[in-house]
Structures are given as structure tokens and as C-alpha cells.
């Protein structure tokens, strides 16, 4: 019975958080507030999707927050200034800006993957170093200044960037639809494709996977590239919503994404977890943050509470693993 409750802990946590803040905070479940929370959930959830695949292989990606900020700066630069080509400037339309920015995020992810696989750098160290490199690059991009008023110019055909973060379809924001699409895609990759099975196998026992003939390096390159791609998408969404590209955007987002993944039941050691669980974990994290803000909880206490939640999630995960081992031994 206890083991079953532990497996469903993320749903219990979501219900408890929703119930508590709906009873203690006025207008918490109002339409306006739900729409705001949906935007916040989208940001953390998309990051957690990429992070899930990385952690399932036994790795970690600490650079995603910096990639969010750098991607936003890339998009802001392309929209406001274009690409200098001698005496001329090439201005890209919004679709081309999105494609280029996503490719930049993917490329950073590939560099992370190359450091981990080809140079055998520990994932924690490789991505921590990349966190500083990319954040510094974002600051250098415009000497620490922002790119503001990213509405584009109609005469150059690069307007419409605001729709990415603020547009709606059937009264649901585009970012939410993007989250749904990314969730379906990642869940399908993890559960329905050979590479998904390889991801779980590598996380479960990398040496055994290698001896079984699996392309471990290629799989790791894929998951880090996918994580970088997800971070670039988040950078585009946030920059579109703010209509301003700031080099410090995404600061500490990596910690929020890791917290969502752990809360969602993914083991930090790899080999166990689901994309859906991480998305629900992102819902819990975002709702908890918004609820504390609406309740007037001090930002200092918010940090303390969030840290305790992460520690508790890891402790519960360890307890679940021990109970599962006891059940297996008993059988």
C-alpha cells in the first residue's frame, strides 16, 4: 500500500498544492490566474522534458538556464539588427529567426554531449562549465544590455514575433500548445522508439548497454542536443512574451527543471522515470511558486521551502527504491 502511494506521490502533491492554495488564497483558481500559471508551467515543463531524457541516461544538464538567456539574445539580435553582410544587412522573418535560434540551442547541446561522450568529462562538470560560458556569451552579445521592442519592421517582413508567446488558438495560448506537442513528442520517443529503449538501458546499466552493442555515444549526443533544443524553445517563448531579450533570462531555471524531474519520479541515477511525470512535477513547482507569491510569502522563505521540497522528493524517491528492492527480494 505504501509503495503504491509513493509511486503516485506526484499526483498527491499536485492535489494537495491545488487544494491548499485554492482554500487559502483568493482568486487562485480564477481564469486570469490560471492563464498566468499556465504560462509559467510551460516554461519549466518544456525545460524539464529535455532534462528528463538527459537524466534518464544518468547525466545532468546544468546549462539549460544559460541557453534560455543566450537563445533569447540571439533572437533579439536577429530581429532588431539582422545579420551584417558587408555593407548590407540580412533581416530574417520570424520563422527563420525561430529556426536559427533552435539550431543554436541544439548546437550548444551537441557540444555538451561531445564533452561528455568524446572527452569523457563528467556531465556535472561539462554542463556547469557550459553554464558559465554561455551566460558570459549572452552578456557579451550586447555588452550586458538588452534588445528591447522586438516588434520588428513591417517593411522588412519580420513582424509577428509576439505571437509566439502571446498568440492563442481556440483561446489557448501558443506556448501551451507547444508544451503539448513537445510532451507528446518526447513521451513517444521515450516509450515507443528504439532510441527511447536505449536511453533507459544506458541509464540502467551503461556498461551492459555498451557491451550489448548499443551506440551509447550517439544516444547521449541526442539527449543533450534535445535538451539544448528545448532550452532554445523556452528562450524564444520567454523573449516573445516580454518583447525584450535580456542576457540574464533563465537564471536558476536549470534548478527548477531538475526539481520538476525529481518530483516527477525520475531517478537521478538514471534508468527510471517518465516525461509525463516530469511535466506534472513542473506543474507542482510552478503552482507552488505562484501560490507562495500570491500568499505573500517572503522570497527568502520561498527559496527555503523550494529547497526543502527538492530534498524531500529525493528522500521519498530513495525510500521508494528501497521498498521496491524489499518487495523483489520477498518475491
UniProtKB/TrEMBL annotation:
<comment type="similarity">
    <text>Belongs to the binding-protein-dependent transport system permease family. AraH/RbsC subfamily.</text>
</comment>
<feature type="transmembrane region" description="Helical">
    <location>
        <begin position="176"/>
        <end position="200"/>
    </location>
</feature>
<dbReference type="GO" id="GO:0022857">
    <property type="term" value="F:transmembrane transporter activity"/>
</dbReference>
<feature type="transmembrane region" description="Helical">
    <location>
        <begin position="36"/>
        <end position="56"/>
    </location>
</feature>
<keyword id="KW-0997">Cell inner membrane</keyword>
<feature type="transmembrane region" description="Helical">
    <location>
        <begin position="118"/>
        <end position="141"/>
    </location>
</feature>
<protein>
    <submittedName>
        <fullName>Sugar ABC transporter permease</fullName>
    </submittedName>
</protein>
<feature type="transmembrane region" description="Helical">
    <location>
        <begin position="300"/>
        <end position="319"/>
    </location>
</feature>
<feature type="transmembrane region" description="Helical">
    <location>
        <begin position="221"/>
        <end position="239"/>
    </location>
</feature>
<dbReference type="Pfam" id="PF02653">
    <property type="entry name" value="BPD_transp_2"/>
</dbReference>
<feature type="transmembrane region" description="Helical">
    <location>
        <begin position="251"/>
        <end position="268"/>
    </location>
</feature>
<feature type="transmembrane region" description="Helical">
    <location>
        <begin position="275"/>
        <end position="294"/>
    </location>
</feature>
<dbReference type="GO" id="GO:0005886">
    <property type="term" value="C:plasma membrane"/>
</dbReference>
<dbReference type="InterPro" id="IPR001851">
    <property type="entry name" value="ABC_transp_permease"/>
</dbReference>
<keyword id="KW-0812">Transmembrane</keyword>
<keyword id="KW-0813">Transport</keyword>
<keyword id="KW-1003">Cell membrane</keyword>
<keyword id="KW-1133">Transmembrane helix</keyword>
<keyword id="KW-0472">Membrane</keyword>
<feature type="transmembrane region" description="Helical">
    <location>
        <begin position="63"/>
        <end position="83"/>
    </location>
</feature>
<feature type="transmembrane region" description="Helical">
    <location>
        <begin position="89"/>
        <end position="111"/>
    </location>
</feature>
Amino acid at each position: 500500500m505504501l509503495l503504491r502511494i509513493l509511486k503516485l506521490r506526484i499526483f498527491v502533491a499536485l492535489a494537495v498544492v491545488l487544494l491548499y492554495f485554492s482554500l487559502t488564497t483568493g482568486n487562485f483558481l480564477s481564469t486570469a490566474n490560471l492563464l498566468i500559471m499556465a504560462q509559467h508551467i510551460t516554461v519549466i515543463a518544456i525545460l524539464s522534458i529535455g532534462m528528463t531524457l538527459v537524466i534518464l541516461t544518468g547525466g545532468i544538464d546544468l546549462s539549460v538556464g544559460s541557453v534560455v538567456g543566450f537563445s533569447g539574445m540571439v533572437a533579439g539580435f536577429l530581429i532588431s539588427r539582422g545579420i551584417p553582410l558587408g555593407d548590407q544587412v540580412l533581416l530574417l522573418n520570424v520563422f527563420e529567426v525561430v529556426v536559427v535560434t533552435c539550431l543554436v540551442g541544439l548546437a550548444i547541446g551537441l557540444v555538451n554531449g561531445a564533452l561528455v561522450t568524446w572527452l569523457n568529462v563528467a556531465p556535472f562538470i561539462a554542463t556547469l562549465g557550459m553554464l558559465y560560458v554561455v551566460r558570459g556569451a549572452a552578456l557579451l552579445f550586447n555588452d550586458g544590455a538588452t534588445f528591447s521592442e522586438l516588434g520588428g519592421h513591417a517593411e522588412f517582413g519580420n513582424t509577428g514575433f509576439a505571437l509566439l508567446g502571446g498568440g492563442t488558438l481556440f483561446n489557448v495560448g501558443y506556448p501551451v500548445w507547444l508544451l503539448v506537442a513537445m510532451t507528446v513528442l518526447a513521451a513517444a520517443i521515450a516509450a515507443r522508439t528504439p532510441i527511447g529503449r536505449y536511453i533507459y538501458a544506458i541509464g540502467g546499466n551503461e556498461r551492459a548497454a555498451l557491451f550489448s552493442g548499443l551506440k551509447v555515444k550517439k544516444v547521449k549526443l541526442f539527449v543533450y542536443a534535445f535538451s539544448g533544443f528545448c532550452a532554445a524553445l523556452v528562450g524564444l517563448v520567454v523573449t516573445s512574451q516580454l518583447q525584450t531579450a535580456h542576457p540574464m533570462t533563465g537564471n536558476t531555471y536549470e534548478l527548477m527543471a531538475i526539481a520538476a524531474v525529481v518530483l516527477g519520479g525520475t531517478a537521478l541515477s538514471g534508468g527510471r522515470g517518465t516525461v509525463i511525470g516530469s511535466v506534472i512535477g513542473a506543474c507542482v513547482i510552478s503552482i507552488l511558486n505562484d501560490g507562495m507569491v500570491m500568499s505573500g510569502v517572503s522570497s527568502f522563505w520561498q527559496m527555503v521551502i523550494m529547497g526543502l521540497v527538492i530534498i524531500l522528493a529525493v528522500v521519498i524517491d530513495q525510500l521508494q527504491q528501497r521498498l521496491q528492492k524489499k518487495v523483489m527480494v520477498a518475491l
